[in-house]
Design brief:
The structure holds two protein chains of two kinds. Chain A is built from six helices and two strands; from the N terminus they run ααααββαα. By secondary structure, chain A is mainly α. A two-stranded antiparallel sheet of chain A has the order 1-2. Chain A starts with a helix and ends in an 18-residue tail after the last helix. By secondary structure, chain B is mainly alpha-helical. Helix content of chain B is 59%, strand content 4%. Chain B has a two-stranded antiparallel ribbon. Chain B starts with a helix and ends with a helix. The chains are: A mainly alpha, B mainly alpha. At the A-B interface, α1, α2, α4 and α6 of A face α2, α6, α7 and α11 of B.
Chain lengths: 128, 356
C-alpha cells in the first residue's frame, strides 16, 4: 500500500466513529423502562383512547385538547367508546396517572424527549 | 440509458425497496427478518465493503503530484504565494483538506456553461453557479445532524450532544403552529432542509440539459432512495406514529448483540429501516463512497512539491545501465593499445582488479 499508515489510521478513526454505538452500549444494562400504573389507573382499565394510540400519539391528543380548550373553549371530549371526559391535563390525566416519574418521566428520559408541559402547568406532587 | 428510462428504472427500484418490507412485515409478519437479520447483513456489507474499497484505493500508486491548484506556487520570495490553495507541505494540505471536507470548496468554484444568443450572435458564458454548492452543503449538514439526532435511539443513556442538537434543531417549536395535531412533536429544521436540498439536487439533473445528459440510474437511484428514507422518516414522526420506546429497544438490542423484536411497532418503521439497510448495503458499491474517497483525492491531499522533492514512479522497472566509467574499465587496455584517450591510466585497471 502507498501511504498505507495514514490511510489505515484514517480508516480506523472513521469506522470507530461509525461503530461508536456498539462500543458505547457494550456492557451496559440498558433495559427499556416499563411504565407503572397507579391502582386507580388499573381500576379504570381504559384510558380516554385506545392503548396503542395513547402510546404512539398521546402528545397529539394533549395538543388537540390544549388548542380546543384555550382557543375554542370546548371543555369536553367525547371518547370513541361514548364516554365524555373533561379536557384537562391536571384534572383528568393526572387524576389517574399521579405517578409522574414512573408514568411519564422514565420513558421520556429513555428516548430523550423533554415536553414543555411543565413550562405552564405545575408539576404534580407525587403521592406515595 | 436515456433520462426517462433512468428515472423510471430508479424510481421503480425504490418502489420495490418500499414494497418489500411493506409486504414482508405488513402481510407476512417477518419482523425478525426485517428487524434483525437484514440490518446486521446490511451493516456487515457496509463496513466490510468500505474497508475493501479503501484498501483497494490505497494499493493504487499515485506516482506524481497533480498540481491542479487555484493559487500561486511557492517560489521566489518576491512572488506572493498562496499557502492553502497551493501548499508546499503538510500544514497547508491539512488546511486545504479541512476546507474541502467541511466547506466543499471545490464545489464552491463551480461554474456552469451557458449558451445563449445576444442579438442573433451566439455567446458562451461561464456562469458563477452557487446553487449546487448550497444544496450540497445543506443536504450534507442536514443529513449529519439527522444522523446524529438518531443517536437518541442508538445510545443509552443518551449523550448530551444529542439533546443539544435536538433542541437547536427544533428550536422553532413549530408544533405550536395553529394546525391541530400537525407538526407534533416539534418540527425539525433539518428535516425540511434535507428534503428541499434533495429536491433541488434531483431537479437540476432534470432541468439542466447538460446534467440530464450525463445522469445515470446510479445518480437517480441514491437520490430517490434518500428521498424515500427522509419521507418515510417524516411520515413516521408526524403522521403514522410508532411507539418510540419499542423502537429504541430494538435498536439498542442490535447494538448490544442481543437482538429483540418488540411487538407492536408499525410497518412504517420497518419500511424506514429497510430503506436505510438498502442504502448502506448499496453504499460501498456506489458513488456514495465519496464519503471515504474525498480523503483520498490526490489533487487535494498532496502537497505541490514536485519542484523540490523527487518522486519516483513506483512502477518504474530497473533499467540496465552501463556508465562510461564501467565502459572504460572494461576496455581500457584495448583503448590504450589502439591509442584512444582514456581518463585514467593503465594502472587504474590493475588497481580495480586488485580490489576485486
Amino acid at each position: 500500500m502507498y501511504d498505507g499508515g495514514k490511510i489505515i489510521v484514517g480508516l480506523i478513526i472513521g469506522l470507530g466513529l461509525l461503530l461508536s454505538p456498539f462500543f458505547y452500549n457494550a456492557g451496559k444494562a440498558a433495559k427499556a423502562p416499563e411504565r407503572e400504573l397507579t391502582p386507580k389507573a388499573k381500576e379504570a382499565k381504559a384510558c380516554v383512547a385506545p392503548l396503542s394510540y395513547m402510546r404512539e400519539s398521546h402528545f397529539t391528543l394533549l395538543d388537540e385538547w390544549r388548542q380546543t380548550v384555550v382557543r375554542d373553549g370546548e371543555r369536553y371530549y367525547k371518547a370513541s367508546d361514548g364516554k365524555t371526559f373533561y379536557k384537562s391535563l391536571q384534572v383528568t390525566c393526572l387524576e389517574c396517572h399521579s405517578n409522574y416519574s414512573k408514568f411519564c418521566l422514565q420513558c421520556h428520559n429513555y428516548v430523550d424527549v423533554a415536553p414543555y408541559c411543565w413550562d405552564c402547568h405545575i408539576l404534580p406532587e407525587e403521592k406515595k | 440509458m436515456n433520462f426517462f428510462l433512468s428515472i423510471i428504472f430508479s424510481s421503480f427500484a425504490v418502489l420495490v425497496v418500499v414494497l418489500i418490507p411493506w409486504i414482508g412485515v405488513g402481510a407476512l409478519d417477518l419482523r425478525a427478518l426485517f428487524g434483525v437479520v437484514i440490518p446486521y447483513a446490511a451493516m456487515a456489507t457496509f463496513f466490510v465493503g468500505i474497508v475493501v474499497r479503501v484498501i483497494d484505493w490505497g494499493r493504487s500508486p499515485v506516482p506524481f503530484r497533480i498540481p491542479t491548484t487555484a493559487g500561486q506556487e511557492w517560489s521566489f520570495p518576491w512572488i506572493k504565494r498562496n499557502p492553502i490553495d497551493n501548499p508546499k507541505g503538510l500544514g497547508g494540505v491539512i488546511v486545504r483538506m479541512l476546507f474541502e471536507v467541511l466547506t466543499f470548496r471545490s464545489l464552491f468554484r463551480n461554474t456552469r456553461l451557458e449558451y445563449r444568443r445576444v442579438d442573433g450572435v451566439p455567446k458562451v458564458d461561464y456562469e458563477w453557479e452557487k446553487w449546487l454548492w448550497l444544496a450540497a452543503i445543506l443536504f450534507h449538514y442536514s443529513f449529519l445532524v439527522i444522523f446524529l439526532r438518531h443517536f437518541r435511539f442508538f445510545m443509552e443513556p443518551v449523550p448530551g450532544f444529542v439533546t443539544l442538537l435536538q433542541n437547536l434543531d427544533g428550536f422553532m417549536q413549530m408544533g405550536a403552529a395553529p394546525f391541530n395535531g400537525f407538526g407534533l412533536p416539534g418540527v425539525y429544521l433539518t428535516d425540511m432542509l434535507l428534503m428541499a436540498a434533495l429536491t433541488w439536487l434531483l431537479l437540476r439533473r432534470v432541468l439542466y440539459s447538460q446534467i440530464r445528459y450525463i445522469s445515470l440510474p446510479a445518480d437517480y437511484f441514491p437520490l430517490f432512495l434518500i428521498l424515500a428514507l427522509g419521507f418515510s422518516g417524516m411520515l413516521m414522526r408526524y403522521l403514522f406514529r410508532v411507539d418510540v420506546t419499542k423502537v429504541k429497544e430494538l435498536a439498542i438490542g442490535l447494538f448490544k448483540f442481543s437482538p429483540t423484536v418488540p411487538d407492536g411497532i408499525g410497518v412504517i418503521f420497518y419500511i424506514h429501516l429497510f430503506i436505510l439497510c438498502v442504502l448502506i448495503a448499496y453504499f460501498p458499491f456506489s458513488k456514495l463512497m465519496h464519503l471515504a474517497g474525498i480523503f483520498l483525492s490526490p489533487t487535494r491531499n498532496l502537497a505541490n512539491n514536485s519542484r523540490f522533492v523527487r518522486h519516483v514512479n513506483p512502477w518504474n522497472y530497473p533499467v540496465p545501465t552501463h556508465t562510461y566509467e564501467e565502459y572504460e574499465d572494461e576496455f581500457r587496455e584495448h583503448m590504450i593499445e589502439a591509442g584512444l584517450p582514456v581518463e585514467k591510466g593503465a594502472d587504474a585497471t590493475a588497481e580495480s582488479e586488485e580490489k576485486e
